[in-house]
Design brief:
Layout: E1 11-16, H1 20-31, E2 36-42, H2 45-55, E3 59-63, H3 71-87, E4 94-99, H4 105-113, E5 117-120, H5 125-136, H6 144-154, H7 165-169, H8 174-184, H9 189-196, H10 200-214, H11 219-228
Parallel strand pairs: 1-2, 1-3, 3-4, 4-5
Helix pairs in contact: 2-3, 3-4, 6-11, 8-9, 8-10, 8-11, 9-10
Length: 234
């Protein structure tokens, strides 16, 4: 007896990598899940931009180092391209970088560009599937400690660490500033909801507003923004 169809539309995934065997494996893994669908693949960053623009996926697995156009530049172009999608009421694709090394400056630059996190190519199938579902739900793939380690290694902290908090996030409301700082410390929506005495739905609304007002693409970028503006001390 076949498995019942998922109650909602499957998460649409595009896989981008110049290794055909790896791509094939990812396709099979994704298609083995009732709630996921591989809607396209690309062997380089330039084709990735075209495929993503055509297929409108929810999540992109993007290799960092590829011929023709690398994953960092492809990520930047995809997110720029997605501006029109937002205006049309569509969602921006979440991008997960694929890498061989955890502490890689290229990973940091990709996240700074707007990627939602990264996974190593030797990750278990279970972890990869969980990562896809996690970023689709609006969370970051990186664990808090891994996030801070990466940021501290490659980010440049603000030289004027004593400047008023308002100079960096004056566009946020007092409540949004509170949520911003909790998010910057790597707390989950549930943990933020508990700390701020609000519902998780309210937290999600605030986080969306914070990202929009600060022109950030992901929660990981919140950590980078906070660190580089000297705000994590609060």
């Amino acid at each position: 007896m076949s498995a019942p169809a998922p109650a909602t539309a499957p998460i649409r995934v595009v896989v981008v990598d110049d290794q055909a065997l790896f791509v094939s494996g990812m396709q099979m893994l994704i298609e083995s899940q009732a709630d996921l669908a591989c809607v396209g693949t690309a062997p380089d960053g330039r084709m990735a931009v075209e495929v993503v623009g055509r297929e409108r996926p929810d999540v992109v697995l993007m290799d960092i180092r590829m011929p023709v156009l690398d994953g960092i530049e492809a990520t930047a172009r995809i997110l720029q391209q997605a501006t029109a999608q937002v205006a049309a009421g569509e969602t921006v694709p979440r991008i997960i970088m694929l890498t061989t090394f955890q502490r890689d400056e290229a990973v940091f630059r990709a996240i700074r560009t707007g990627a939602s996190g990264f996974i190593t190519k030797d990750a278990t199938p279970e972890f990869i599937l969980a990562a896809i579902r996690t970023v689709h739900a609006g969370q970051a793939v990186l664990a808090p400690q891994a996030t801070f380690d990466l940021v501290r290694q490659f980010a440049t902290e603000a030289s004027d660490a004593g400047r008023p908090l308002e100079l960096a996030i004056d566009v946020l409301s007092p409540r949004e500033r509170e949520i911003f700082l909790l998010t910057a410390r790597g707390l989950s929506n549930a943990e933020i909801a508990t700390a701020a005495f609000v519902s998780e739905a309210t937290v999600k609304t605030h986080v969306r507003s914070i990202l929009a007002k600060l022109h950030l693409q992901s929660r990981v970028q919140v950590v980078i923004f906070a660190y580089e503006n000297g705000l994590l001390r609060y």
